[in-house]
Amino acid sequence: MKVLIIENEIYLAQSINVKLNSAGYHCTIINSFDEYSNEKHYDIILLSTNTSNFLKAVEHFKHNIIILLISYISTDTVSNPLKMGANDYIQKPFMIEELIRKIKHHQDFRKFSILNKSYENYIKSRLKMIKIPEYNYKKLKLPIILKSNIQSSADAFVFKYLNECNIMLLYIDLTIANSVEKAIKSYMDNTLLFLSNLQILKPLEKEKLFDFIKNKSVILHTNSNIENTKFHCINLNDSEKDTISNEILTLDEYAKYIILKYQNTFSDTDLSKKLGISRKSLWQKRKKYDLKKK
């Protein structure tokens, strides 16, 4: 990372330069913005408010990380530059370690902001074509159990809820080991906890989870029939995955798809043969998936 130090106190500038060089930064020192040339790009600007034309420097570098080096706090040295685009300030005299901490903080913040924006754009592009029913998300009483045959439909529901209610997201896939314990430990107020694949949990795990999420901001997703619970349930009534989707079907999903698609075309005898199961197993699967034959 390249750092431009704009400071007219030479001893301070050189001290900063030595410490930042040892921390892996490459520094250039100038006495004022008047000495700056556009030949090089800098990631971080350490700008003393005692230098001439420092406000012009703020305006010029407002898309970079700017940390003001100030002698005193005032509207001119702090408030106005921050409004113009500076990111932070540190008051002289200061410890160089504190300055490095601020630099790393703003580096991380900028990196995560860019990543977050990229992920947000990617998710929006993936979900924008998914059609789900309209809901008044602000009036939904959580926790709720969301029944959806397609994971992306449940994802679309959750992200619409996040946008409407302006709340942060914590996601846990219940298929991972110790997922219930992780969900309990990770839960935070003012955060939506989204748990997918509820159908995978054993009865005792499900009971433990249900006891914990009472009166909490939680959305549970399942692709199986919703059993009687004390929580509000929403069925998105979406279609099944099909054999031309980009997702790999599990054996259960494949059997469910075949039964639903062909049960009104083939007899139960022929359909069970094609699936390699008995007629009794076919009947049990139909009951499990709540599939009604016309």
Automatic annotation (TrEMBL):
<protein>
    <recommendedName>
        <fullName>Response regulatory domain-containing protein</fullName>
    </recommendedName>
</protein>
<dbReference type="GO" id="GO:0000160">
    <property type="term" value="P:phosphorelay signal transduction system"/>
</dbReference>
<dbReference type="InterPro" id="IPR011006">
    <property type="entry name" value="CheY-like_superfamily"/>
</dbReference>
<dbReference type="InterPro" id="IPR014483">
    <property type="entry name" value="Sig_transdc_resp-reg_prd"/>
</dbReference>
<feature type="domain" description="Response regulatory">
    <location>
        <begin position="2"/>
        <end position="107"/>
    </location>
</feature>
<dbReference type="InterPro" id="IPR001789">
    <property type="entry name" value="Sig_transdc_resp-reg_receiver"/>
</dbReference>
